[in-house]
């Protein structure tokens, strides 16, 4: 029997397949449950933003349930629970260990990091009972830890975008032309893309004006439609960019002060996205990789000299691979294509005729010698445990490691 799927279902399945291919989850069912919960929440956040528009047409998107009416509540929490009843996510709310946020959806025990909510993003109320609870031991094996960073982008229970305004046909056309191909938007499914686009605010900026001042608090993320900007760190020009580029993400991602001053070097037309919408929508998709690798890169001694900005750019270029015990990762004599950072696991480094010459584990690195010296691989590297690595291609190695290359050279084991 041949089943025919609607276009919508096909698109949904394709998105899902892409996520699986990218994440290579160790626990497919958990991954899938988290993934679809997040999709559902995203879709409903989108509908929620459009609720007034539907209400005007007498369409009720979020009917009041018996339960939401029977509990005594403040006016504010009543309006909140009306919609959040529908948003309850059994896998997320009832499971203290679950985390759909930081690493995309993979729930590998070594990748877990339950991040604290910041004050303004704490889920309110936490009403229970509207959905069947999951057994509490579900996912109980998974490690959780609390990081100082606040990176929980995707709890939509109580969030309505503040700056939502349907764009005109003309604006949509302009946006499609100028930023339609920007990597930020390519990673979004159609609902989230539409939500983000309708939350963008148009801003005209005069040549010479300061758009962002280093050290300030982060409020907006910007995408450039027209014009050019320069970036200054401690009064030194470090970069320039133009149409289609974006800036201002770091302070919003890490809740840190602005890392650079940004000055318009011509009249600019910018699109600004407010901090909360950025965190709720873009962090979990377009910037997922940065979140995923942030802890690893921060804790690697060899990368100590990199700035937040350097680490962010590096994370964008990394890919993940998992090796099983006994698998060869690098073979002596082969051409070198990648540099490897060990997220977790263990590997043996061996040389023909000498046997095992080194053992490496979590947060060590390998594969640098061939790339630094343009030589064939000088040793074989084999996983001795299940090992997860982040890989960086040759061109990224040369472009993105910056000052860390000097440290790698100093530590080059073939030079001693
Ligand atoms: N070399 C750089 N260091 C820091 N920020 C940079 C650099 N080049 C461009 N930027 C951008 O400048 C922005 C200033 O605000 P944010 O720190 O929020 O995010 C920063 C980056 O998007």
Q: What structural category arises from helix and sheet content?
A: alpha+beta
- The number of helical runs is 16
Content of β-strand:
15-25%
The end-to-end distance, rounded to whole angstroms, is: 66 Å
Put the structure in a nutshell.
This protein has 416 residues and is an alpha+beta fold. It is built from 16 helices and 18 strands. The model is unreliable at 66-156 (pLDDT under 50).
Report on the architecture of this protein.
The protein is α+β, with helices and mostly antiparallel strands. It is built from 16 helices and 18 strands. A hairpin with a 2-residue loop joins β6 and β7. It is globular. About 22% of the residues have low confidence. Bound molecules: adenosine-3',5'-cyclic-monophosphate. The site of adenosine-3',5'-cyclic-monophosphate (CMP) has 16 residues, from β6, β7 and α10. Belongs to the cAMP-dependent kinase regulatory chain family. Pfam families: cNMP_binding, RIIa. Tetramer, composed of 2 regulatory (R) and 2 catalytic (C) subunits. In the presence of cAMP it dissociates into 2 active monomeric C subunits and an R dimer. InterPro entries: cAMP-dep_PK_reg_su-like, cAMP_dep_PK_reg_su, cAMP_dep_PK_reg_su_I/II_a/b, cNMP-bd_CS, cNMP-bd_dom, cNMP-bd_dom_sf, RmlC-like_jellyroll.
Describe the structure using short key phrases.
416 residues; alpha+beta; 4-stranded antiparallel beta sheet; binds adenosine-3',5'-cyclic-monophosphate; RmlC-like_jellyroll; cAMP-binding
